[in-house]
Amino acid sequence: MSRFFNLESYLEYCQYAQIFAEKINLNQKNKQDLLLEYKHFIDRNKKVEFLEFPSLPSLLPSQLTPSHQSRISKEKLGFFIEDNREEEIFIIPPINAFGLSLLRASYLFSPVFYYWNFVDDIIKFDNLDKQPLIIYNFDDFTPSQIIPLTFESYPKINYPIPIIDTRNLDNYQSLKLSSMYEGGCDRAFSTIAENIIEKLKLDTTLKTDLVKYLQKINIFKLINSQQDNNIISFPLIIYLNEKFYHYHLNIEEAREIINQELPLQELNKIIENNRDKYNFLVISSYDLPLVNASFSSYAISVKTDDFIKFKDIWLEAGKKQFPLYGQHLDKISFFVAGKEKNQEIEISLPEKICYQGEKDEKIYGEYKNDNGELKQEFTMSIPLVYLPFTINGESLIDEETSKKKMYKIENQYYDENEDNNLLIKICFILQPGKPPKLEVIDQYNRILNSSLENAPELNNLGYIPTKNINEFTRNNLSNIGLDKISENYIDIEQTLLNIKDKLRNIKSANYNSYNFVRNAKEIRRLRLEANNTFTPILNYIPINSEKNINHILSIYLDLENLIDENLSKLRRKYYSIKGENSLSINNIYIDILLFLGKSYGLTQNMSLNYLFDYDKLTSNNVKNFKEHLQNIARLACILSRQKQYFNLFSTYSQKEDKEFYKIEAYLWGYARILLWYLNFEEASTWLNYQQHFSDIINHCLTLNYEENKNKGYFQNTLLCLVYLLTFREINSEFVLENSHNYQSAKQLVNKLENCQIRSNLVQIKDNLSLNELFAQLLDGKASGDYIPKIEIVD
Question: Which pLDDT band, with edges at 50, 70 and 90, does 503 fall under?
Answer without folding.
Answer: very high
